[in-house]
Write a structure and sequence with these properties.
alpha/beta, four-stranded parallel sheet
Length: 331
């Protein structure tokens, strides 16, 4: 049966079936091939989109802007100081105004409730560029990267997330793995595990699709037999700076280093959604090294820069997968 996503919002992957996710991944691969072959694909000529950013980003902004322009669209970027949304104008009113002017709206910011409200009132497709709870566009890029490494059929593959498994990336990885029949393991301290209600939802999906959801504090159990070792920064954007000390104490045992990669399959790859604190070449990295004597945080530099790392393929794939989402929902 043909898949049509025209007019749909893209808010969280729980809203999408396995077939719909696979369709988006196939379309992403096609658009990536066309981009690399310099084949024009301005299929949305004359349309316009707006990007609402309450949280700044390198990859998300650039991916949406380049993807939109590749598709022939006009793109407006509104940073946190360029909109009255939520300040002088309600989310509902902002959605209704922008929906009269634009063909699609991207939101990157805080509570999932905000992007859901935008979608309820806009009258045009709304895309989630990141909320506190979910990061669905990142997931498509991640799975496209895994597909490029291991092939389209990922059934029985194991993806292990190391560290703070309560964040939006771990939540969304658990969802997409359960939808696609990939075994998902969250490996970290018990207090940083995903919410139990989401775990149970994903376990039911995983059982339906022939995979499993495992939560463990044991690094050896988590990394053993993994095809993908994935991690993220230990303190997310918007969290207070005074939480660093506690997170470092909690999460240092879950740093992805050569020992951890050695526990995974020899063919395993390392992934990270970026930015990463793998050295002291950032102001935060240098500050943490000065305060805590920790020159590398969630991943050791030898892994990040090593032959198993696919982080920059993953970053590029944000553009191709976001392009697929916009084409599918606006086409």
């Amino acid at each position: 049966m043909a898949v049509s996503l025209s007019g749909r919002n893209f808010l969280k992957l729980l809203d999408y079936s396995r077939e719909e996710i696979e369709y988006l991944l196939d379309l992403s691969a096609q658009l990536k091939a066309e981009k690399h072959a310099h084949v024009p694909h301005r299929h949305l000529e004359g349309k316009n989109i707006v990007l609402l950013f309450e949280k700044t980003s390198t990859r998300t902004r650039c991916a949406f802007e380049v993807a939109g322009r590749d598709l022939g669209m006009g793109v407006t970027y509104l940073d946190p100081g360029s909109s009255q949304m939520g300040k002088k104008e309600s989310i509902e009113d902002t959605a209704r105004v922008l929906g009269r002017m634009y063909d699609g709206i991207e939101y990157r910011g805080f509570a999932q409730e905000i992007v859901e409200t935008l979608a309820a009132y806009a009258g045009v497709p709304v895309w989630n560029g990141l909320t506190t709870e979910f990061h669905p566009t990142q997931m498509l890029a991640d799975v496209l990267t895994v597909r490029e490494e291991f092939g389209q059929d990922l059934s029985g593959r194991k993806l292990t997330f190391m560290g703070d498994a309560r964040n939006n990336v771990a939540n969304s990885l658990m969802v997409i793995c359960s939808k696609l029949g990939i075994d998902f393991c969250a490996c970290g301290p018990a207090e940083q595990m995903p919410e139990s209600s989401l775990v149970e939802t994903c376990r039911a999906l995983a059982e339906k699709n022939g995979s499993s959801i495992i939560l463990t504090e044991d690094v050896a159990e988590g990394a053993s037999g993994a095809d993908v070792i994935y991690t993220d920064i230990w303190v997310s954007m918007g969290e207070p700076d005074d939480i660093w000390e506690k997170r470092i104490e909690l999460l240092s045992p879950y740093q992805v280093n050569a020992r951890v990669m050695g526990l995974a399959k020899p063919t395993a790859i390392f992934m990270h959604c970026l930015p990463s604190f793998h050295d002291t070449k950032t102001t935060i990295g240098a500050d943490i090294a000065r305060k805590f004597g920790l020159p590398e945080m969630e991943v050791a530099n030898e892994v990040f820069e090593g032959p198993q790392s696919r982080v920059f393929d993953e970053a590029e794939n944000r553009m191709h997968t976001i392009k697929a989402v916009m084409l599918a929902t606006l086409g």
